[in-house]
Amino acid sequence: MSAKKPITEKYSEAQRRILHHLKAGLRAGKYYFKSKYIALDLGLSPKEVGTNLAILSEICDDLDIKRWSYSNSTTWRVTPRPS
User: Fold this and answer.
1) pLDDT score for 1
2) d(CA 73, CA 78)
3) Per-residue pLDDT for 2 more than 50?
4) Residue 23 and residue 13: Cα distance in Å, rounded?
5) Could you give the C-alpha distances from 61 to 13, 15, 32, 51, 73, in angstroms and in order?
6) DSSP the chain
7) Of the four, 6, 19, 39, 58, which is 20 to 30 A from 50 by CA?
8) Residue 64: count of CB within 10 angstroms of its CB
9) Is the separation of the CB atoms in 44 and 13 below 8 Å?
């Protein structure tokens, strides 16, 4: 039986910051996030945000992260995963 890794081991620093940003947005009622605006808020490049969101879409257990649109900047749809 494998135990879940602690968040500090599972995610990089950038991924933890992005997850925190997404969860704060969800609490505020947002479900769509543009890479370029996340990058501006967190001091990262849009490419770095996009790369990490693609990784998080595969490994994040508590959020469902999907690439939604590519116009002007990649938009991501984020929803909580059912428990």
Assistant:
1) 42
2) 16
3) no
4) 15
5) 17, 13, 18, 18, 25
6) -PPPPPHHHHS-HHHHHHHHHHHHHHHTT--EEEHHHHHHHHT--HHHHHHHHHHHHHH-SSEEEEEEE-SSS-EEEEEEPP-
7) 6
8) 12
9) no
